[in-house]
UniProtKB/TrEMBL annotation:
InterPro entries: Ig-like_dom, Ig-like_dom_sf, Ig-like_fold, Ig_sub, Ig_sub2. This is FCRL2 protein. Residues 37-122 form the Ig-like domain. SMART domains: IG, IGc2. It comes from the Eukaryota. Pfam families: Ig_3.
């Protein structure tokens, strides 16, 4: 649903016998579509805690507790404006020393942006 779907709705249909049907309509019902602001953006890691051995795989996942979609995601490290990836997951197959740092995901509904708290990833 989008906000422009707000309005008054009713349904109707033919009732009665095949010989003498008649058209009936329901009462009007008012529908208001409201946007839910983005909130509760969180970040999780596999392995948990963001500690990963050199050369291993790290998967970061971004979740949104509430918000009106469709949602888009971007991933950032160390406050960089340049995104590392898009989508609700960031998959680093073979982590290196340069992958250590603070990671955040950003979620957007097209009108607003919300960020997760940073997660410190440590490559051991």
């Amino acid at each position: 649903l989008k906000r422009h779907h707000s309005g008054c709705y009713h349904c109707g249909g033919w009732v009665g016998s095949r010989v003498s049907p008649w058209w009936e309509e329901s009462v009007l019902v008012s529908v208001t579509v409201q946007e839910i602001p983005l909130s509760g953006v969180s970040l999780s890691a596999q392995p948990p805690g963001g500690q990963v051995a050199l050369g291993d795989r790290l998967v970061l996942s971004c979740a949104v507790a509430a918000g009106t979609g469709p949602l888009s995601f971007s991933w950032h490290r160390g406050g960089s404006a340049l995104p590392l990836g898009t989508g609700p997951r960031l998959d680093l197959h073979h982590v290196g020393d340069n992958d250590s740092g603070h990671y955040q995901c950003q979620a957007s509904d097209g009108d607003s942006v919300a960020e997760s708290p940073p997660l410190n990833v440590a490559v051991l």
